[in-house]
């Protein structure tokens, strides 16, 4: 029981730190947008955006895992990410372009170096990061 | 004059009654008085045949009144003057005159109308199980009460109570002429099931009595028309394409929806027969579904859906056989939804029959639940155009929108408020978009798994995304909660296994 409580405590603190990180990033982005568009952002707005981003990230993660499992894979790939982003046309286009770029890079790497399984994992990580960035 | 109206000792009550019978026909105390001035027996000969006819009719009833009203009649004759008549005697005179035209005429006129109704209702009754009988039972007292009020006759009261007993026992009714009046009311109550016909008013006024038989055929016709309109929206589009295959199972399945006609075993068999049908069509269905919006694939779940719609408690089974006849090319959105659910998912519980606009988390709850319906938040539906646009949206849109009108009725019912037409249109648009999204999702999910057929897993994934299927709530739980028992039996085969283990230990 104590362990589970400590575990929960740790998870909670972990969450809080993640939220703080997201909030920090969102604040930076909002500042950039404010400078760009000559508008100002309320603190509550920034907090709201950060909270929404965090929850959406959770949803994305769950969906990605579901999609990967649905395709009977244990790895999340760009296909899963594309499936996730299909609602938004522009986002989908963006991701597809990025995916093609990365694929080209991978091909170049393959021609230069030996084939490595690490590239696939980097593929999956990079589009996910892009998704987060484009979302925020 | 006064001497005329004094009671003669030689006059018996019978003679008094006779004289009153002669004079009462005129329905006017003044006329009665004038006729009474003449000899008492002469009106028999001098009066027209109409009076005689009415007298013969009236004699049947008058005798019952005779004992009661003899004193009143004597008073009428004795006093004669309108001014001298008490209200009581006036009322009695009216009672004597009024039922003449109302009681007998409706029987003669309504008999041809009653006969088919009686046949129908007796057939219904014989075919009705206890379930359906409960429906008219609460109405029987109401119509009986109205009948009682209408006809204040003791004879009829007895018959009505006997009739009620018979109804409770489920026996076919014995056709009795006075009972027909009430029986027709009950028959119409069978047919209407929520509007008891106001017969009591018509009986009290003789002039309106003639209109009564007109009302019933109109009511039934209007109701059938209403049902036709409903069935238009619910008629499935795939019937045109697969009519030769679909007729038999659909008819069977349609009939199976009536809880009293066929056993569920026969129904399940027929549905099983229809279930393999989607598999060949599912291959094309999932691909061509969203891209072309073809209304093909009258799949088993479509049948199931139709039967599901049929199981909504319609008060009578008669219009349902008309549904296969009304097989018009109305592609309702629910048909598309069914295709999505069925063309890929043979065993899926995604019987997304009915209509629903729900809140964001319950987006697919609507697809599953037959009749739950909540006011839609249009914001929940993403308004972005879907990636795969249909090839011919114009051609198919109108029938789909027409099909959505069926959902609008549910919507208006559940809002419990009057809704603007503009609001209806917007709700329809949102519903349309929502269903398009769902169909797209299913197709994409199946493609994602490298398949061409939409399968149960795809639907489960969709539900999971909707938040309906969670780690706590599984698909089977939803099936058990929201689908009729027959579907549960089909979709969860082990539910009916009765805990029997193979091989036996």
Decide which structural class fits the backbone of chain A.
Answer: mainly alpha
Helicity range of chain A: over 70%
Q: What structural class results from the helix and strand content of chain B?
A: mainly alpha
Average of the residue pLDDT scores of chain A: 83
Main sheet characteristics of chain A: none
Give helix and strand order of chain B, one letter per element, not per position: HHHHHHHHHHHHHHHHHHHHHHHHH
Q: Rg of chain B from C-alpha positions? A: 33 Å
Number of helices of chain B: 25
Largest interface by residue count?
A-B, 14 and 14 residues
Task: State the end-to-end CA separation of chain A.
Answer: 38 Å
Tell me the total number of β-strands of chain B.
Answer: 0
Summarize the structure.
The complex is a heterodimer of chains A (136) and B (505). Chain A is mainly alpha-helical and 136 residues long.
């Amino acid at each position: 029981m104590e362990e589970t409580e400590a575990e929960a405590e740790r998870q909670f603190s972990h969450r809080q730190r993640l939220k703080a990180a997201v909030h920090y990033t969102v604040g930076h982005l909002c500042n950039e947008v404010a400078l760009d568009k000559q508008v100002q952002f309320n603190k509550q707005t920034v907090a709201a955006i950060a909270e929404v981003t965090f929850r959406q990230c959770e949803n994305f993660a769950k969906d990605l895992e579901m999609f990967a499992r649905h395709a009977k894979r244990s790895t999340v790939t760009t296909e899963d990410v594309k499936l996730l982003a299909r609602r938004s046309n522009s986002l989908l286009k963006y991701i597809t372009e990025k995916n093609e770029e990365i694929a080209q890079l991978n091909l170049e790497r393959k021609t230069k170096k030996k084939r490595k399984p690490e590239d696939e994992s980097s593929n999956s990580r990079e589009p996910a990061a892009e998704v987060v960035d484009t979302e925020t | 004059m006064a001497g005329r109206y004094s009671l003669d000792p030689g006059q018996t009550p019978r003679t008094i009654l006779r004289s009153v019978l002669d004079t009462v026909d005129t329905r006017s105390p003044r006329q009665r008085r004038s006729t009474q001035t003449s000899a008492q027996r002469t009106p028999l000969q001098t009066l027209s045949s109409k009076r005689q006819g009415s007298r013969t009719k009236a004699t049947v009833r008058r005798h019952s009144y005779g004992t009661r009203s003899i004193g009143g009649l004597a008073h009428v004759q004795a006093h004669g003057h309108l001014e001298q008549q008490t209200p009581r005697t006036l009322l009695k005179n009216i009672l004597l005159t009024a039922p003449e035209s109302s009681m007998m005429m409706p029987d003669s006129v309504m008999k041809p109308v009653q006969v088919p109704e009686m046949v129908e209702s007796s057939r219904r009754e014989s075919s009705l199980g206890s379930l359906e009988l409960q429906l008219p039972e609460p109405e029987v007292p109401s119509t009986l009460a109205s009948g009682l009020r209408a006809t204040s006759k003791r004879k009829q009261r007895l018959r009505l109570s006997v009739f009620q007993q018979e109804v409770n026992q489920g026996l076919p009714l014995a056709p009795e002429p006075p009972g027909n009046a009430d029986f027709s009311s009950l028959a119409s109550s069978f047919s209407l099931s929520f509007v008891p016909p106001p017969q009591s008013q018509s009986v009290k006024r003789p002039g309106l009595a003639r209109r009564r038989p007109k009302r019933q055929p109109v009511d039934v016709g209007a109701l059938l028309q209403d049902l036709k309109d409903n069935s238009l929206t619910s008629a499935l589009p795939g019937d045109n394409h697969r009519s030769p295959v679909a007729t038999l199972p659909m008819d069977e399945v349609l009939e199976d929806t009536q809880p009293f006609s066929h056993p569920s075993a026969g129904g399940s068999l027929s549905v099983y027969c229809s279930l393999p049908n989607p598999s060949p069509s599912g291959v094309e269905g999932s691909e061509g579904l969203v891209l072309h919006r073809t209304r093909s694939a009258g799949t088993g779940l479509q049948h199931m859906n139709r039967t599901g719609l049929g199981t909504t408690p319609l008060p009578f089974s008669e219009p349902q056989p008309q549904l296969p006849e009304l097989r018009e090319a109305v592609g309702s959105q629910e048909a598309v939804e069914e295709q999505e659910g069925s063309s890929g998912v043979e065993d899926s519980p995604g019987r997304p029959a009915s209509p629903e606009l729900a809140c964001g988390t319950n987006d697919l709850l609507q697809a599953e639940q037959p009749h739950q319906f909540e006011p839609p938040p249009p914001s929940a539906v993403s308004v972005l155009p879907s990636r795969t646009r249909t090839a011919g949206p114009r051609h198919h849109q109108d029938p789909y929108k027409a099909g959505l009108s069926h959902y609008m009725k549910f919507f208006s019912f559940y809002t419990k408020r009057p809704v603007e037409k503009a609001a209806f249109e917007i709700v329809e648009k949102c519903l349309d978009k929502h269903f398009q999204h769902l169909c797209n999702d299913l197709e994409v999910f199946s493609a994602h798994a490298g398949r061409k057929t939409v399968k149960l897993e795809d639907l489960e994934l969709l539900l999971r995304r909707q938040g309906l299927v969670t780690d706590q709530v599984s698909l089977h739980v939803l099936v058990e909660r929201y689908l009729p028992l027959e579907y549960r039996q089909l979709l969860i085969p082990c539910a009916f296994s009765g805990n029997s283990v193979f091989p036996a230990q």
